[in-house]
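Sample 3 of the quickstart, ligand zinc ion:
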Amino acid sequence: MITQKSIQEIMDVAKVEDIVSDFVNLKRRGVNLLGLCPFHNEKTPSFIVSPAKNIYKCFGCGKGGDPVRFLMEHENYSYPEALRSLAARYGIEIEETVTSKESVEERKAIDDLFALNQYAYEYFIDQMSNTDMGKSIGLGYFKERGFREETIQKWGLGYAPNQKNHFSLGAIQDGYKDEQLKKVGLSTQYGSDFFRGRVMFPIRNLSGKIIGFGGRILSKEAKAAKYLNSPDSEVYNKSKVLYGAHFARTAIRKTDECIMVEGYTDTLALHQAGIENVVAPCGTSLTAGQIRVIKRYTPNITFLFDGDAAGKKAAMRGLDMVLEEDMNVRLVLLPEGEDPDSLVLKLGATKFEEFITRNKKDFILFKTEQLMEDTKDDPTRKADMIKDIISSIAKIPDPIKRSVFVKECAARTHTGESLLFDAINKLVAQAIRKEKEKKKVENLPAPMPGDESAAPMDSGAEDFPPFPGEGEKEKLPGDEFQEKDIVRLLIEAGTVVMVEEEKITVAQFILNNIEELLEDFDSKDYAGIVKECLDNFNEGLILESRYFMSHPDKKVRDIALELLASPFDYSPNWEEKHGLTLQTQKAPEENFINDTLSSVNRFKLKKVIRLLKKNQDKLKETADNTQVMKIIKVQQRLTEMKKELASFFGSVIIK
Ligand SMILES: [Zn+2]
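Result:
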C-alpha cells in the first residue's frame, strides 16, 4: 500500500490539466479549459477542466474527478496504478507499506493482467533477439521488410516461437496463473500458447501500456489465419484501440490530421519514414469507438487505400460512420499493387507526403465520381446511386457542410439541387426524430444548478430561492439548496479565513453555528458530510476539497465533484443559450465569506420558520388558556427572530 505521505506528495504536484491534455485536446475558456469529453460521444465540447480546483467535469455525461480519478477512468488503472503513473511522471519516489485489505486484491487483479502482458512483451522480444529461430525467422522478416533496428526497438516487435506451450509454462513457473493467461488470451483454453511461429506486434493503450498483441504467421504452408489478435479482455477493448495511437497522438494533434492505414506494417513503415500521424485499426474493421479516439485530437481523417477494385470497395464501405461523427473524411487511393508500406519505401517520406496531398479527395466527391463511373448511362442505376450518395450526405451533422456537398453532388451528377435538398431534408428529419426518441430513453442530464450563478448579469439577489412562508408543508422549498450550499462552502472554502484578527475559518463559523441544527438536515448525505467535518474539526483538522475528492465513499466523492463543479465560471449550456463566452470568474474569497454568512443565516431562518409552524399547529390543538398564552409568547419571540434573520437578507448587500 502506498503511504499517505506519498499520496499527499503526488496530489500536491499532479496537475489535472497536464494529465487530461495527454488525451484530450483542450482549449482555454476563461480560467478553465474546454474539450470534447473522452468518456462519451459528443459534437460540442462539454468537458471542462478547472486548473484552479484541480478537477475535471463533463456536463454531458457527468463524469468527473481529480487527476487520479481521470487516469483510473480513462486508462482503466487501479488506484495504486494511477498513483504510480503520476509519481513516475512527476519524478516522485513512492513509499509503500504492506497491508491486508481486500479492495487491494481487486485492484491487483487488473494490475496483474497488465503485468502479464508486459511479461509476454518482454518474452517475445527476448525470443527474437536471443534465439537462433527468433533471429533468423523473426528478425529476418522485419529486416527484409525494411525495418531498422531503432524502429524494432521503439515498437517492441518480437517473435513467438513455434512451440506448443513454451511461453505458457514459463509464465506459470514465474508465478502467473493459468486463468490469467487465458483471460488475456495468451494461452488457449487447452493451455497451449495462443501465438506460435509468429512475428509479434504489441498493442498499447494511449499511455503506452501493453494491452494485447497482433501476430503474423510466417510459414507459408500453414492454413492458420495470417493475422491473429489478442481477444478482448479486462484491459483490452478492441473497438476502442488503434494501433500506433500512443506514438501518433502528438503528431496527430500537431498536424491536425490523422492518417488511417490498414495494417501494422503500414503504420510502422510510415512512422519510420517520419510520418507519425498514422494509426490503424488492429484486428477489426473500423469502429465508431476508434473514430472517437481520433476525434479527441483532430476532426480531420485521411484514409489510405489500395488502388485496386477491392481497395475501392473497402473505401466506400463503413465511411458513412465517420461522417456521422462530423469528421472531415478524405481518401487517397494508392497506385495499383502498392500499399503505404511499399510506396513510402519506394518514394521516400517527402515524395510520399506530396503524393498524399496531391491525391487527397473528399469522401463524398470521391464516392460520387466512383458511382458515376460505375453506372455510366444506366438511368435506373443512376437513381440508386444518387440515393446512396444522399444517404451519405445526410449523415453529416453540420448543415452548412451538407449544403456545400449537395451543390457539388448536383453539379457532378447533373441533377437538380432542389431535388437533392428535398431528399436530404427528409432523411435528416428522420434521423433527428430517431435521435430524439433515443434521448428520451437515455434520460438527459439535468442542467447544473450552478449554471444560473454563472450568469453575467448576476446581481446576487436572484441567487436565492424565495423565502419559505409559514403555512407551508413539512419540506420547505429551498431546503435542499441551503443544505447543499452549506456543504459546498465546507468542501470548497473550509480553510478560508473569515475574520482575520481571530483567524476564524469558514469551517469553524459554519460548524459552530450549525452543530445543534444538524438533526434538521433533510438530506442524510449532506448531514453525513457535515458530521465528518465536525468530527475532524473537533480533532483540530479542517478538511479540504482534496480530502473529499478522494473519499473512499463514492457518494461523497460524487457530491464533492458536483458541488465543486457547479460554480464553474463557464458552462457550455450558457454559451449555447446566450451565445457568449464567459470570461469572469465568480467566487473570489470575499464571496465565500458573504456566502457563508448568508448560508448560515438562511439555515437558521429555516429552523425558525419550522418552529413557527410547529407552534402554530400546537395552537390549533390547544384549548387550555394558559397553554395558549405560552404558545403565543413563543410565537412572538420566534417572529422577532425571523424578522431579525430576514433583515440580514434585506439590508446586507450580498455580492
Ligand atoms: Zn462526458
